[in-house]
Amino acid sequence: MLNMNFVPDDYIQNKETHRTNLIYLVLLVIVMAGLCGSFMTIKIRQRAFSAKEKLVNTKMVQTAEAIKQFEELQAKRKVMIKTALTTAELLEPVPRSVLLAALTNNLPAGVSLLQLEIIQKEPKRAKRVAATSKYKEAQAKRATADQAEVSRENSLETLIDIKGIAPSDLQVAAYIEQLSSSTLLDNVALVQSKEHKIEGMTFRQFQLTAMLRKNAHLTSEDVGRIRNKCGTVVFY
Questions:
Q1: Which of 1, 58, 88, 158 could bridge across to 212 with cysteines, CB 3.0–4.6 Å?
Q2: What residues contact 179, with CB distance under 8 A and at least 6 apart?
Q3: C-alpha to C-alpha distance for 34 and 186, rounded to whole angstroms
Q4: 13-39: per-residue pLDDT in tens?
Q5: Of 153, 222, 157, 164, which Cα lies nearest the Cα of 186?
Q6: Angle at 14 between CA 12 and CA 15, to 5 degrees
Q7: Can you name the residues that pair with 145 across neighbouring β-strands?
Q8: For 79-96, how does the pLDDT look when each residue is reduced to its tens digit (9 = 90+)?
């Protein structure tokens, strides 16, 4: 049986064209909607990143200000420590006149002082073991420096160099024994003792070293007693 189509070919072609155009239009709308959505997403992310960047910049500024304040405090701290150290060096725990009186009070008969030198200095520190890394080494150096600045005034040593003459080594030994039993001195040691002639008479010229005891402080009664006991000393 013959199937006959009475619809014109132009109508069918136009209908297919409209359908194709409609599909293209829908696809274009979908693509535009996707582009708009992507654009909006990018904008939202840019705003979020901008807000985060502003927050980070604000924190960096605050951190820089905090570091600056910390450095200023460190500089003020160093100045205060330096001032304290200078004051500590100027203040003597034991007046030198009292120390001289204590040295002369213990002189055996016939012994005279030739020279007396008092020096304040920092004690020698033992070398540190090398650090296992640069970070540990820097951290150890920083800790050592801070500790040295804080405790320097407490670690100053007062060294005493004594030179004199005596009739014999017996008087020198007796003088060393007297100084060793003093409440002010410590580490009394004989450096040398040699023969010395003065106007045809033979003497022993000696040199001693001693150290002022740590935390040695005297009351006014102790100072008065030492000064009253001090006798006449012959200096050459």
A1: 158
A2: 103, 106, 185, 188, 208, 210
A3: 92
A4: 777 888 888 888 899 999 998 898 888
A5: 157
A6: 65
A7: none
A8: 887 776 566 555 566 677
